Amino acid sequence: MEKMEEKGNHVARKKGGLVTMPFIFANEICEKLAVVGFNANMISYLTTQLHMPLTKAANTLTNFGGTASLTPLLGAFLSDAYAGRFWTITIASIIYQIGMISLTVSAVLPQLRPPPCQHNQVCTEADGGQLAILYASLLLGALGSGGIRPCVVAFGADQFDETDQKQTTKTWNYFNWYYFVMGASILLAVTVLVYIQDNIGWGWGLGIPTIAMFISIIIFMVGYPLYRNLDPAGSPFTRLIQVSVAAYKKRKLPLVSDPRLLYQNDELDGPISLGGKLLHTKHMKFLDKAAIATEEDNLKLPNLWRLNTVHRVEELKSVIRMGPIWGSGILLITAYAQQNTFSLQQAKTMDRHLTKSFEIPAGSMSVFNIVTMLSTIAFYDRLFIPFARKLTGLDRGITFLHRMGIGFVISILATLVAGFVETKRKNAAFAHGLVDQPHSIIPISVFWLIPQYSLHGMAEAFMSIGHLEFFYDQAPESMRSTAAALFWTAISAGNYVSTLLVSLVHKFSAGPNGSNWLPDNNLNKGKLEYFYWVLTLLQVINLIYYIVCAKMYTFKPIQVIKKEAAESEEKGVELVNRV
User: Fold this and answer.
1) Where are the transmembrane segments (predicted)?
2) I want to staple 343 with a disulfide (CB 3.0 to 4.6 A). Which of 161, 244, 339, 565 is the partner?
3) DSSP character at residue 357
4) According to the model, what pLDDT value does residue 8 have?
5) CA–CA separation, 35 vs 467, rounded Å?
């Protein structure tokens, strides 16, 4: 009888929990090794192996990156509406695998790439057929990423049953573990795999990530019997549109005096409220009109384009409330993005010798960012949370909104410090008469850049994980893949804002004598510190905006039926505001 009840509630027999984590994290390690190892050095592959001009190669990767940033919305929609997270991840991984195999084969077989450059001849660029293989491989990669990115983190969190009081702390703990595993994998990829690609060969350099991807698929599928798989509950976007249309159709109706008079239907909402039913909130009352029943409405089988339940109306309210917090995360990514552009250019002009014979590659400076991020996560999880818990009484130590706020403050310090370091670098260039020599190494240690790289890593440990927690926790239960996709779209938007900001500064800071804050050829003659400080000012304004949004934010009120009470057939209801 109990099994039948569970089946009716779309939940399989008791599964999930910590036993599934080795499979999910092993998959994440291999998948990140594959994806990052595949993309970290791709600009070198396109220019040195396919002989693409630098601008064409950069635009190719930018277009691929833009497409890969949009496809998570498609993958999330298919996961939440039709396929479920397990099958979306599996199919998307196979698609990505096919793309990796085709590119690896083209790197191994000489006939699938142009001949090597001769010393006295112009390099032969890849022909149409060779480029077709490249574009097809990158497109498959973008489609695969669209299914993997939004679903993996949500699928891992799904393994912890929120209605089971014994597991309440493990869900938020999981996000720290997830980000730590992801960061460690990225660190391995940007050091070991990039070294193999540059020094051993592209066959091995692309072959190892391809093999890692294959292993990740096998490991992930082996764990299938242990996973807690939640059934897809229909298109979340359709439900949001239905509420909007219903509210518009009933816009002329007066609001009800008592929210208990609004339409409720537990049977209809059952598949989309397994973790608890959303309760009515006082905000955005015009949407409540979608839940006002009239004589024309069939209460047993309602037309959802005319009548919706309170739970469905609150789903739309939850998504709208998340919007301002989503937008606040964009500028942090914009600041973070400068590490791969201007900070990298700074590093190229500085003394990078660790010893007389060993020089740190400029691109490896990101190691300091990743190591700091990993150290901060370990400190946060093992030391900060137990200490904060004693002060606040919260299981997670502090709320994710406080965690994000700390990340914003640290990011402001990062760009502020970066401006002062750039001033010191230019003063050293001036003192040694190297201002007009952009390719000369200035006698100032590259380790002066460590504070800004480390502060950005620390900010990410606070802000990005807090952002991810926020989306998963505050999104409607049936839209959690979509919520994870929003996390990735914020990252995408941050990069686009960076491009826009750099273009505007470059355009409007241009002087009549060719001077510019962000010069094309000689950073020593620019005013990069001014750009960093403009970014700092924008982040201060953004922090004020975030504080206002956080103060006004209403956590979704959810009615949870305690598992122990449900099993003993007692009416045990708990009202929860998750933080």
Assistant:
1) 86-110, 131-157, 177-196, 203-227, 358-380, 400-421, 485-510, 530-548
2) 339
3) S
4) 41
5) 22
Residues of the chain with pLDDT below 50 are 1-13, 563-575, 578
Contact (Cβ atoms closer than 8 angstroms) between residue 349 and residue 438: yes
β-strand partners of 359:
353
Q: What is the pLDDT of residues 270-327, one digit of tens each?
A: 888 877 888 999 888 999 999 999 888 888 889 999 999 999 999 999 999 999 999 9
- How many angstroms separate the CA atoms of 56 and 485, rounded? 29
DSSP line for 70-120: HHHHHHHHHIIIII-HHHHHHHHHHHHHHHHHHHHHHHH-GGGSPPPPPTT
Query: Can you tell me the distance from the alpha carbon of 556 to that of 560, in angstroms, rounded to the nearest whole number?
Result: 12
The two tokens of residue 184 are 């460690």
In this structure, which amino acid lies at residue 40?
A: A
| Euclidean distance between CA atoms 272 and 237, whole angstroms | 13
First to last CA, the chain: 35
Q: For 127-139, b where at least 16 C-beta lie within 10 A, e where not — what string?
A: eeeeeebbeebbb
Residue pair 266/277 in contact by the 8 Å Cβ criterion: yes
DSSP, collapsed to helix, strand or coil, labels residue 444 as: strand
Q: Within a 10 A sphere around the Cβ of 364, how many other Cβ atoms? A: 14
